[in-house]
Amino acid sequence: MPTQLISKLTELAYNEIQSDLSGHEIEGRLVDNLLGKSLNFTTEQGTEASVKFHSIGRGKKSPSTVVTLKVNGIEFEQDEQRLSLDLRYVFYREYGHDFLFTGTPTKFLVTSPFVQELGPSNFLIEFVIYGNTINHVNRCLSVFADVLKSHQGEVHQTAIEWYDDREDEWEENSGVSLEELISETDPTEDPIEYIYTKSDESSYIEEYIEYIDNSGGEARQTIDSRNTYAESEL
Known about the structure:
By secondary structure, the protein is α+β, with helices and mostly antiparallel strands.
């Protein structure tokens, strides 16, 4: 039996059990099994960091869960508002698009994540997810570890620099043209891959600038809506 089918059947069976529990019992089970659980990871620069469950609570609508993750080990120069926007954009590039446009859309975020700083390398990420099973909530660690690694990656850091260096010059139709490829792809060994990668990196930066630069723009509204697709399912 395919692994994906087994996982789905297990989830359905667990959801059936959960439906017989009260809201307090569900919350208590999540807290008992997950609160304080952590995941360690390493960034491209070799920085050792961790993300762990700081708090877990019931969402206003069932089935949903309010999750706060605590991140240690990464220092950010951005303020809380800008970092929140960055993580939302990275989430979309890493997960939001695929979660929404698969044959069977994956319900995950109900609200966009926002950041609260506790110290130079110590901050919280809070959001609401769809689902209230241990399996649903537990995947937050791996998902946001990936988001944080990508945020620290060369492509996204280049996007940050590109925007910050040209903030006063940016115009909606100015476009992005990279002089050099960010990632390591040899044009002589695989010219097609080189062209595709360069186009993808330029698109990443251009879309990022549109998202950050215009709070009422189409890019901001579209990405935020796709990220929180699960909200419409409650």
